[in-house]
Structures are given as structure tokens and as C-alpha cells.
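Sample intake sheet
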Amino acid sequence: MAQNSDFCSVCNLYLCPLLVNPNNMKQKVAVVRREHFNAAHRLFRKDWSDEQNTSTFGKCSLPNFHGHNYELEAKVIGEVDAETGYVMDIKKLSDLIAEKVLEKFDHKNLNLDVEEFRTLNPTAENIAIVIYNILRPHIPEQNELYIRLFETPRNYVEYPVAPTNFVNPKS
């Protein structure tokens, strides 16, 4: 049970953020924007035989391409600005993704239409890294950026990989 000294007369809450951390504006917060794009691709290596491509990439290596309805999450982590109350204006983040990513990727054949994938296999992993590299220069330097890209509702990749608190049960 919280002590009376843990009650905030400003918020009328026990253990409110102002009491837990009087410099609340210095706490890190994550803001996430979710966007959607459709794109086609083919997973293959030009220097491999059809047999090796099929063995490695399965149906994803078929020569006539295939498409996905990608869901993109861009997470920006930083301190809350004391003046605006924002880590980053989410509308600016949305506009940035629309201009730099969606305009470039949406309804495109990644292998043929996107310069970065002319020589890079457009796997979900590589797409996430490319998106990160496109957005990173436009995010304030003091903020962290993480990309989560869903290729299907059950399959997604994250870049960069955030540290986790998972413990290996065998250790």
C-alpha cells in the first residue's frame, strides 16, 4: 500500500510520474507510427542456379515475382521535450515516412524499381535495414530509431535489434 507521502496533490494519483521522477521531462518515451505499403519482389541471387535459388528461397524465387502487404512500424525513443511535450511530432514522423519510404516503395517492384535493391536481395531483413538507413538521417540525433516490418501478419523483422532481458534457460 502506498504511503501518504506517495500521494501527489497535483495529479491525485499515488506514485504519479512527478513523484517517482521529479524531472519527468527527462524520462525516455517511445512514439510509434504505423504505415502500410504494398510491394512485389523476388528473392534470388543472379549468380546462383535456378535449383539453388529454389532450394534456398522456395516459391519466393519464382521468376514472375510475388507481393506483400507490408506493415511498417517506426519507433522513435527519446526524452520528452519540456516545451512541446513531444519526443517527436508524430505528424512529422508520418510525413517523413510517406515522403521517404512510401513514395519509394508503395506499389513498386522492389527488385526493378528501387535502386537499393538492384544489387541487394529484397528480403524482409534487408528492406528493414534500407528503411532504417533512409529515415535515420532525418530523425534527431539524440533520439533512437527502431524499425519493425511485418511481411505477413505472423512474420516480421526488427532493426536494429534492441537489447532484451531474455535469459537463456540453458545458462
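Comment: The first strand starts at residue 7 and ends at 8. Strands lie at 7-8, 13-14, 28-41, 66-79, 108-109, 144-152, 155-159.
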